[in-house]
Amino acid sequence: MGPIGIFDSGIGGLTVARAASDLLPNESILYFGDTAHLPYGEKSPELIRKYSTRIALHLLNSGCKAIVVACNSASSNALEQVREAVGENIPVIDMVHPVVESLYVSDAVPSLGCKKVGLIGTRATISSELYKRAIESLNNAANGTVELFSRATPLLASAIEEGFYNDTIPGQVLEAYLEDGYFNEVDSIILGCTHYPLVSEEVKDLLPKSVAVINSPKIVALALKKVLSERGLLLGKSSQLETSNKFQVSDLTENFRLGAERFFGGNISLDEVDLTL
Amino acid sequence: MGPIGIFDSGIGGLTVARAASDLLPNESILYFGDTAHLPYGEKSPELIRKYSTRIALHLLNSGCKAIVVACNSASSNALEQVREAVGENIPVIDMVHPVVESLYVSDAVPSLGCKKVGLIGTRATISSELYKRAIESLNNAANGTVELFSRATPLLASAIEEGFYNDTIPGQVLEAYLEDGYFNEVDSIILGCTHYPLVSEEVKDLLPKSVAVINSPKIVALALKKVLSERGLLLGKSSQLETSNKFQVSDLTENFRLGAERFFGGNISLDEVDLTL
How far apart are CA B14 and CA B35, in angstroms? Predict the structure, then answer.
């Protein structure tokens, strides 16, 4: 009954760690941010797979009972390799499938009924077309009619990581990517990068008021809870006296230290762990 | 009499490769862009040193007769380690010292006479304070009165790498970093990142017309020529029938392929080389 392992290329995945921690307050979390190699969003699928499996094995060796791939670029390009690396006994939750499934099956989140769905993400996420394939597959299985409008907005994550939120820059960057009106008809939008929740207001401002922003971290936390429960891995209220969250990064700088607290929304202490040794 | 080795964290150093190629058309170039690990600008000094010395040794083992550290973050944090790794026989030219020296000694570039000098660069470059120390040292040695105004503008390199030039975004990003008027009194500005020459017009537009933009790639190419000449390593017109430029990256994506041609200003073919093997 070890901790829940959560990893990202950097500190964006802390938005998912936050949602998991809120939903599952009895669980402990071991977070790993691969700050030595971020951003993944511009890297090749092969390299993303190499980094992701290395981290997943580190989390496995640290005793994690489940792994959340809290990075859309890694979820989109390395999910199969991560599952293979850690074996069937360890549930692996990604960022893509729970969100896509929420468009077809209501799970305490109001994504059901969204039909023309916009998606923004890194170049690696959009190029992989995993969201597209997952939607096509569920459209077929459930006679669905969800239509996806996806666009890579690569500079946005860097802008957020640099502290440009509550600021005009993210809006201007997004506007530059969307000025052709590609999203004019969507009814909802998936923030397909774990950094983006920090600029959800700026995203809303750029789109008609009726467009719903789909809350990926919360949906993924719910999927995590469900799978832990199904496998009998969920801790009850009395089963653990004290939770112990740990946060590791592969390269520790002052900027990441400050950023981590913004993303997680609270004081955390970061340790540096070099996986290449 | 091998090629000139030039490296950067990514493709920005191609602005230096371009200047070197223009000034020394008889020389061959071996360029290495560490796209698997870019950007260096946010990484710790230790990690920048590890990556930089690995690349320098690769260039040495590939027969390079001189090495240009065409990355300000690496020049500012890893110069000593690179010099130590390749040994005294291989001249190592960095981005910082030739530019600072040009403020004191005219070398066919009009930096001499600049007294209040602005500097923009990555967080790793500015934090290292190498520009500051180099200026203080030459102020002392030459009774100089150069004053440095430096500021980190970390998002700017990512914006350029993402293709946001000839666009409003770089100006807006820069404006956000400089809106306190910190550069109001400078007479010149050093673009302390090899990506920045692509937005020199946007930098000019933000500053008074009298502010001179110091041309770092050209200055570094001149310093390279000087040291090759001093050491008898410069090829004459007739010494090589055909130059052969090679361009290597540690992670090859279509985006880097396109970006490389923009930065170098011409068709080039990129090869992927994994130095971690």
Answer: 13
Identify whether the C-beta of residue A78 lies closer than 8 Å to the C-beta of residue A53. Answer: yes
pLDDT, tens digit (0-9, with 9 covering 90-100), for A173-188: 999 999 999 999 999 9
Domains and CATH numbers, chain A: 4-94+217-272 (3.40.50.1860), 97-216 (3.40.50.1860)
Catalytic-residue membership of B64 = no
Nearest by CB: B154 against A162, A176, A251? A162
Q: What token pair was written down for A180?
A: 């052709």
C-beta atoms of B162 and A154 within 8 A: yes
**Is A154 in Cβ contact with B252 (below 8 Å)?**
no
Tally Cβ neighbours within 10 Å of residue A25. 11
**Three-class SS state of A26:** coil
Instruction: Measure CB to CB from residue B158 to each of A37, A158, A252 and give the nearest one.
Output: A158
- Taking each helix axis from N to C terminus, what angle separates A45-61 and A72-86, rounded to the nearest 10 degrees? 50
Nearest to A157 by CA among A204, A192, A207, A118: A192
What's the pTM? 0.89
Q: What is the mean pLDDT of residues B6-25?
A: 96
Among chain B residues, CA nearest to A153 = B162
